[in-house]
Design a protein that fits this description.
heterodimer, A: 388 residues, Rossmann fold, five-stranded mixed β-sheet, four-stranded parallel β-sheet, 15 helices, 45% helix, 14% strand, B: 155 residues, alpha+beta, Glutaredoxin, 7 helices, 12% strand, binds flavin mononucleotide, binds iron/sulfur cluster
């Protein structure tokens, strides 16, 4: 295949200092439709993993006739290997709040909520300082929009949007059936925009610099840049903002330790890319999508241990509401243990792969539906490591 | 008013008495008492005018809302893959040896509880742990002993 190779290029939009208040003043004076068009035109897609076009999400919510609407910033960041939202909230909180206010302005919401995972509670004091002055500024400028913080309490599933609404409503974080989608019935069953932390910062950036700066980065399917959380067997673990759409090969050249055998793209719910596929695999919506989690494994690592760790994670974090996921996670975990111990024949892996496929179809939410991603890509590419 | 009634009253005054206030109230109790006793949960149910089953059901869903007695300091070691690869087991062993407890247990003086947690969001500085709300990263067995000795002597 002849892919025009994208070189690895660092970008500095997310963490760069931006005059947020100035950006807001200009945005609030402009026609709402014009600002929305800018977001639509930029090609920005959600950075939380699923990649829904942000402009469309805002447009659908803006079109809802309801008087009561909400903007929610998803700062639950629970996907193993993702830590960029924490860094964004630490370094540029105003840009996050700015994105929420712009969204509120466009869709006609009066309240915004930032749902922060319990593991990041230490950030609340820091965020409160910014939040208070931000809310005051809005009030002083006659903008009827207020942002509040709500805390999670250690449940990965609460990052799933409808589980997050349930949690904010004081209930168990159990995902709802879809449709209706949040744009129609989200928090308190009202039209709601829920966006990832990074998505909201890019919205601020796009308002500041215009759509074309963003649109000219990345690829056709994956416009713009993306913040990556790099960890595992790498000498340079950390947070990097890169031009979107490079191959795994380019990525490994920059971040590997010279002995990379696999990269897990997108965390436990993402895909494992083995060395032989580095060259042909694009990191982005046209290839392997990621909310930012990039874990490198070198040849000293057992991929059985990696998969076991992920399955243990899913087994614990499944909300237990639907059977394919509740029982499926448990059976996959016990299944690979049995094969490893020789209690089951290697053919049992085929049965487990079928189960993973069933979970993809029959599970109620994205958690159960994506367990099969890592399961299938690890088992198929590292079969011998599962057995011996 | 009993102490429990007073605590719950102060939290309902602050967060409200609707179903939506439940999580902030439960979080407030845990911040103060480190766990949710049956008495507290029953009192919350009474003050919010919802069934105790709803309060228990919600509380037990969340891993940070403990319903068993916990020490003053809850240590949560990250067990997800990157921390595991970078020495989580040695860190856990150092803590177990020092405090003479295993994961899931509390010291007899009720000062420390040791737990494991899923990804804490510090993979680039693995291994990591939380003590109550405070993250500690790039841990080594030596570093962890230093941190805990400080808690034992000064807190
Ligand atoms: C199990 C599960 C966990 C999720 N966790 C998060 C999360 O921690 N942060 C996040 O932004 N999105 C998370 N999502 C995706 C959200 O449901 C939602 O798509 C996202 O917040 C939308 O924002 P975006 O369009 O800006 O990406 C999760 C989805 C699933 C299925
Ligand atoms: S797929 Fe899993 S996490 Fe999602 S609703 Fe079903 S049991 Fe809950």
């Amino acid at each position: 295949m002849n892919i025009p190779e994208k070189q690895l290029k660092r970008v500095d939009l997310i963490f760069a200092e931006t005059e947020v208040y100035e950006t807001l003043e200009i945005a609030f004076k402009r026609d709402k439709q014009e600002v929305l068009n800018e977001i639509l035109e930029s090609g920005l897609r959600g950075r939380g993993g699923a990649g829904f076009p942000t402009g469309l999400k805002w447009k659908f919510t803006a079109e809802q006739p309801s008087e009561e609407k909400y903007v929610i910033c998803n700062a639950d960041e629970g996907e193993p290997g993702t830590f960029k939202d924490r860094e964004i909230l630490t370094r540029v909180p105003l840009k996050v709040l700015g994105g929420m206010a712009i969204c509120g302005h466009i869709i006609g919401a009066k309240e915004g909520y930032l749902y922060l995972r319990g593991e990041y509670r230490y950030l609340v004091a820091h965020l409160d300082t910014y939040l208070n002055s931000f809310n005051d500024w809005l009030k002083k400028h006659g903008i009827d929009f207020t942002i509040y913080i709500r805390m999670g309490s250690g449940a990965y599933i609460c990052g799933e949007e409808s589980a997050l609404f349930e949690s904010m409503e004081g209930k168990r974080g159990e995902p709802r059936n879809k449709p209706p989608y949040p744009t129609v019935a989200g928090f308190r069953n009202k039209p709601t925009v829920i966006n990832n932390v990074e998505t909201l910062v890019y919205a601020t950036v796009i308002c500041k610099y215009g759509a074309s700066l963003f649109k000219n980065l990345g690829t056709f399917d994956s416009r713009g840049s993306k913040v990556f959380s790099v960890s595992g067997d790498t000498p340079v673990a950390g947070i990097y903002e890169l031009d979107f759409g490079m191959t795994v090969e380019r990525f490994v050249e920059e971040f590997g330790d010279g002995d990379t055998k696999a990269v897990q793209v997108g965390g436990a719910s993402g895909f494992c890319v083995p060395r032989k596929k580095f060259k042909e695999t694009i990191i982005g919506f046209e290839g392997v999508p990621t909310g930012g989690s990039m874990k490198l494994f070198n040849s000293s690592r057992s991929m059985y241990n990696v998969l076991h760790n992920y399955l243990d994670f899913f087994h614990e974090e499944s909300c237990g509401q639907c059977t394919p996921c509740r029982i499926g996670c448990q059976q996959l975990l016990h299944g690979i243990e049995a094969v490893k111990k020789g209690e089951k024949s290697t053919a049992y892996l085929i049965t487990l792969l079928k189960l993973a496929e069933t979970m993809k179809i029959a599970s109620k939410c994205g958690l159960g539906q994506s367990v099969g991603n890592s399961f299938k890509s690890i088992v198929e590419n590292f079969k011998e490591e599962m057995i011996y | 008013m009993t102490e429990v009634q007073e605590l719950v009253r102060s939290l309902t005054d602050r967060h409200g008495r609707t179903r939506e206030s439940l999580l902030p109230i439960l979080q407030g109790v845990v911040a103060k008492e480190s766990y949710l006793s049956d008495t507290v949960m029953t009192e919350i149910a009474k003050q919010l005018d919802i069934s105790a089953a709803q309060v228990f059901g919600t509380a037990t869903f969340y891993s940070f809302l403990d319903t068993e007695p916990r020490g003053k300091y809850v240590i949560r070691i990250c067990k997800t893959i990157t921390c595991d690869m970078h020495g989580k087991r040695q860190i856990a062993k150092a803590i177990e040896d020092l405090l003479k407890i295993k994961a899931g247990e509390t010291t007899t003086n009720k000062k420390f509880t040791l737990l494991e947690a899923n990804c804490l969001g510090w993979c680039h500085e693995a291994p990591a742990m939380l003590i109550n709300d405070t993250p500690y990263t790039k841990l080594t067995p030596e570093k962890v002993l230093e941190i805990l000795t400080d808690y034992m002597q000064n807190k």
